[in-house]
Amino acid sequence: MKQLKKIHKIHRHIANQRLDHLHKKSTEIANQYDVVCVESLNLRAMSNKGFGNGKATLDNGYGMFLCESRQMVSKFPNLPLLWISKSTVKRLENSRMGLSKL
User: Fold this and answer.
1) Which residue has the higher pLDDT, 82 or 58?
2) Residue 48 half-sphere exposure, CB side, CA atoms within 13 Å?
3) Helix segments in 1-102, DSSP class H
4) CA angle 81, 90, 32 (to 5 degrees)
5) Which residues contact 21 (CB under 8 A, 6 or more apart)?
6) CA–CA dist 96, 22 (Å, integer)
7) Which of 13, 37, 68, 96 is most enclosed, with most CB atoms within 10 A?
8) pTM for the whole thing?
């Protein structure tokens, strides 16, 4: 029983570290930029394709980061969160404007 409590404590600590890091990064992005653009990714399809990552694609915390970003954007009413598709990203990369000036 003691070992289980120690393991649970360690897992809780790691989970809190991840949440803290996501909170800090989303706050940094919200403070630094006027617009936040997020590409709509199908992570499940990416994990099933032959990228070699498999389940690691699902475990990377991208979904948690999006949730944290949504919460952070709600605290900054003048900061829009734009969902863009892959074709829009490619079009912006090919244009003169580029993603950095969006």
Assistant:
1) 82
2) 4
3) 2-32, 43-48, 55-58, 62-75, 86-94
4) 35
5) none
6) 32
7) 68
8) 0.63
